[in-house]
Amino acid sequence: MKMHFCIPVSQQRLDALGSRYVLYSVYLDGFLFCRVRYSQLHGWNEQLRRVFGSCLPPFPPKYYLAMTTAMADERRDQLEQYLQNVTMDPNVLRSDVFIEFLKLVQLNTFDITTKKTSLDIFLPNERSIQVEILTSDTAERILEVVSHKIGLCRELLGYFGLFLIRFGKEGKLSVVKKLADFELPYVRLGSSEVENCKVGLRKWYMDPSLDSMLMDCKAAVDLLYMQAVQDIEKEWAKPTQAQRQKLEALQKEDNQTKFLELAQEVRHYGYLQLDPCTCDYPEPGSGAVLSVGNNEISCCITLPDGQTQDTIFQMSGVKCWQVTFLGTLLDVDGPQRTLNQNLELRFQYSEDSRWQWFVIYTKQAFLLSSCLKKMISENMVKLAAENSEMQIEVPEQSKSKKYHIQQSQQKDYSSFLSRKSKIKIAKDDCVFGNIKEEDL
């Protein structure tokens, strides 16, 4: 499925010789990922084509005449589509050509040199382990280092991920984003405008029954147990009073296996809970707390009159969804580093045999979208297991296991839209008449 790349804004710059060029601000999951020129992306595409040939998506063509504003906007849209489409191929995602270029542009954008350093990785029990890394190490590489240090079986790496996590007042915890394999955690941690963020290790699957795949690895069980205890303490998972008493007894006995078996029966176990937000259902302006997992979006809704109700949207009823940026980008010395201030996720859902759009206004719209994609990919793996004629490849799961699916079975369920009419950039940035291809 497509990754959440977008290019909502670009700026004109002058090089050392006084020639104009366009710098594109590329965002991933709502955070500024890098700033690049067309010529850099064009050269990268040429490298990829030498490896992967014609299977790559089309790249925006060169213009040999001066570009108009409309042409510049069209190119920006085309580059955005290219980045979204090229990341759909898992073979491209894992290639050195793909990863090395994205490492370089991340470092250059935030003016960071490659050097040795240490990084604290927070475990679900909120304790941290320190690992020695390079500033240019990817999330995938750091996850491997962490797993080796704690004794996590390598074949289980695909069930875990590194996340940007915000620790708030009174012990509140908020998952900001899942770090992509090719992201540089050191760079992301330093470039994020979100306060009190740390890099944390959490399991990365939405189907609680997948716990069974990890029970033979002591380190994996330790992580599952830590996260289960944390989720119950944070009230993300909601045991009954009787369940809570049994869980507390098992916790005192340090019986992790039995604890996790009982936790499977707890409401919202293994779900990811989002920060309080608003939605348009059943009335505009309703408050909502969303818990996502086990093929559903569970909503605790507070109506404008203060009444509450629980609503569940099953993933089987979701046709598609899109994330839209509603805010403005103010360009002073460069655009802001996050789009997360004004986001909505709307999804089309079948209710009473008719399709209806539901809208959620949340800063975690991209994270919510990633969770929905994860649930779909896990369902596709299950479907493939039930139908031996189908084959599917899901790169986010264990790297040692590959599944294949016919192209006709693949479907893109999500999209990202930016309200470009609301994006504010400097007046000079709207003038493209004097820019020629050699300046890009």
Automatic annotation (TrEMBL):
GO terms for cellular component: early endosome. One of its GO terms (biological process) is endocytic recycling. SUPFAM superfamilies: PX domain. Residues 1-109 form the PX domain. It holds the Pfam family SNX17-27-31_F1_FERM. One of its GO terms (molecular function) is phosphatidylinositol binding. Belongs to the sorting nexin family. PANTHER family: SORTING NEXIN 17 AND 27 (PTHR12431), SORTING NEXIN-31 (PTHR12431:SF15). This is Sorting nexin-31. It comes from Aotus nancymaae. The lineage of its organism: Eukaryota, Metazoa, Chordata, Craniata, Vertebrata.
